[in-house]
Design a protein that fits this description.
Elements (H helix, E strand, L loop, with lengths): L1 H17 L2 H12 L4 H8 L3 H23 L1
Helix pairs in contact: 1-4, 2-4, 3-4
């Protein structure tokens, strides 16, 4: 199980790296740094709706790509 977990984590990192630049940045600030959407918007000088859109796109892409691995 540990090997499977490490492979999953490795693939996730690879898929995150493949995201478009803004999506990747928003995803990392949200999930890895724990920033709120409001804080991300302030840090990047974009609207909260734009942050929400980038995060939604990133999560949808990652979910789709990981689903093939998990099945």
């Amino acid at each position: 199980q540990w090997i499977e977990f490490e492979e999953l984590r490795s693939r996730l990192a690879m898929f995150v790296a493949d995201l478009p630049e803004k999506c990747r940045l928003v995803y990392r600030l949200s999930r890895e740094s724990g920033y709120s959407q409001k804080r991300i918007a302030t840090e990047l000088g974009i609207s909260e709706k734009t942050v929400e859109a980038h995060l939604g796109k990133a999560l949808k892409t990652l979910r789709t790509r990981l689903s093939s691995f998990l099945l």
